[in-house]
Amino acid sequence: MRVHVDLEGLQLTGPKWDTLPNGTSKTHVFEFDKIPAAPGTYPVLVTIEFADLNLYPFTALNVGGLVIGKSAGPAQLFAKAEPLEMGKKGTLTIAVKNTDQTAKKVRARVLGPRELDVRPAAFEFDLPAGEHVKKELAVENFSALPGAGYPIFVVFDYDQNGVRYSYPVATPVRIAQGGLSASWRNGIIVAGGVLVALVALYEVFRRRKA
Questions:
Q1: Strands 116-119 and 132-141
Q2: Which residue in 152, 67, 48, 49 sits closest to 110, CA to CA?
Q3: Which end of the chain, N or C, is less surrounded by CB atoms within 10 Å?
Q4: H or E element: which one contains 200?
Q5: So what's the pLDDT on residue 93?
Q6: How far apart are CA 50 and CA 44, in angstroms?
Q7: 2-207 is classed in which CATH architecture?
């Protein structure tokens, strides 16, 4: 098992852990040599690669927040996405609304499991004051098993008055055509421990201030 983090394109990889028994957790503190200068809330994208008892590879995902300086409050955005059930290919539709009267230039980054290919992986768009837009993402099954489920995160951010604001949205994606495979059932056992590690990592990021 190995943990990867991404802060503003700076990618770090943690140590390789051979096993994570049920009911246990591991913690690794990532030290960034450089952090953004502007104050605000920045997303930290977390990807955990692990394998089940049969060494079939899986991916677990999460998004944490790193607050630099004094927070100026939540982002003036609202986004939602409907759950997606797909076979080989599918389309994920996300609605994004500007909740105040200031136009924004919004950036978006997609965090998806390596079992799925999501396009585009990053994009930008203008969001007029008080308006909303819909964006479509093409999702293709690369190696996910029938019956498997994954989250896809889309993190929106924008700059306003020298402050960074970010807003993550997550939606579940399920692979149709069949029930849970034996590998997936075994993976659930490992995933329980992985989620404990995710919570520990999130707490590290949440508490860190610059």
A1: antiparallel
A2: 152
A3: C
A4: helix 182-207
A5: 95
A6: 19
A7: Sandwich (2.60)
In the numeric block, which tokens belong to residue 60?
A: 């677990």
pTM of the model: 0.77
Q: Bridge-partner residues for 106, per DSSP?
A: 125
pLDDT at res. 21: 86
In which element (H, E) is residue 154 found? strand 149-160
Which pair of tokens denotes residue 202?
A: 């999130």
69 vs 163: CA distance, rounded Å: 10
Query: Residue written as tokens 């201030």?
Result: 209
Q: Which two tokens stand for residue 41?
A: 């809330």
Give me the mean pLDDT over the 39-61 stretch: 88
Q: 123-140 b/e with 16+ CB inside 10 Å = b?
A: eeeebeeeeeeebebebe
Rg (CA), the chain: 18
- Alpha-carbon distance of 148 to 179, in angstroms, equals 8
Count Cβ neighbours within 10 Å for each residue of 8-42 and write b for 16 or more, e otherwise. beeeeebeeeeebeeeeebebebeeeeebeebbbb
Q: Taking the domains of the chain in order of start, what are their residue ranges?
A: 2-207
3-state secondary structure of 143: coil
- The helix or strand, by DSSP H or E, that contains position 198, with its residue range, turns out to be helix 182-207
